[in-house]
Write a structure and sequence with these properties.
With about 220 residues, the protein is α/β, with parallel strands linked by helices. The protein has helices spanning about 20-25, 50-60, 75-80, 85-95, 115-130, 145-150, 195-205, and strands at about 40-45, 65-70, 100-105, 135-140, 160-165, 170-175, 180-185. The protein has a seven-stranded mixed sheet, with helices on both faces.
Length: about 220
Amino acid sequence: MVLGQRTVWAGSAGLAYHLPLVAGFTQTAVSAPDVALADGPTLFVIGSLSGVSREQAAILAARGDVVTVNLSPHMLIEGAGSQQWKAHEQELGDAVEAGTDVMLLPGSNHRMTSEQGPLLCSALAKMAAHLAGRVGALVATGGESARAVLHGWGVNKLRLLGELETGLPVSVTEGWSRALPVLTKAGGFGTPQTLLRCHEFLRELDRNSARNLLQGKRS
């Protein structure tokens, strides 16, 4: 069977690794712009409530050099305006101002409905909105959470540069005010040390050029 040019591929993420070879796609070299990367602490947004993401977040939080902002899902869904919300925003702002990496971590003791999931992602994006020009990288678990945060910041385009681990792409913002490193992953992906590895990679990153993000690429 011959497939047309308008074919849309669907399936598991692992399928994407075999498609180029099977479909005869031409492999092209990945390039990155020679521009300075944004500087500042890393923002981790844990939008996935999966057990894998929770374990990864716990290991990262145990380091002691990342400020973890534990958020009540009920408070997030209720929306901005409460004193608790304002206190969390202040905690985030103070940590970033001090140059400390921060992690937004919703509690896992709330059973989410299908309707509440998008509300949670939207609320996390609102909580992070004031950090757009202040952080030096974004690491997000859960595709909808990453999309919501980036949309809230006005980021409409990413340049994919490679992978730090299988299923963990390394990108940089394009057509935005800053060249911001962005690492994203599905909630159930990775090893227990995945977020810790993201933390160390970004901390050691030479930010003189976006081309240095290519060192994150793995075959």
